[in-house]
Amino acid sequence: MAMFKRNLAVVIGINDYRHGVNPLKTAVPDAERVAETLRQVHDYTLLHPRLQTPAAILDSDATLSALRHLFDHTLPKQVQPSEQDRLLIYFAGHGITRQTDD
Fold this sequence. Notes:
The structure is a single chain. With 102 residues, the protein is α/β, with parallel strands linked by helices. Helix content is 30%, strand content 20%. It contains two helices and four strands, in the order βαββαβ. Strands 1, 2, 3 and 4 form a four-stranded parallel sheet that branches. The model has no long low-confidence stretch (mean pLDDT 89).
């Protein structure tokens, strides 16, 4: 079995929302704990919209523009998929269900 050379993670936790969406209590602490476990126990490098800050992306840092930039620009440049790289994405926060005909 081949070993991974790079373990990369994007960990997002959002408690505070705008526009009348009820705040959460545990999303940020959950994301912080997952990030810490990934970093300390499993040797993951955390990716953040500000590249010099290897940390979970929490609340005010998890803006739509920052996340779009991360997924559209930063990740494609940083992550080169191969058998020796892996990327984990974790999200804790609200979600919505889209109504479709499917």
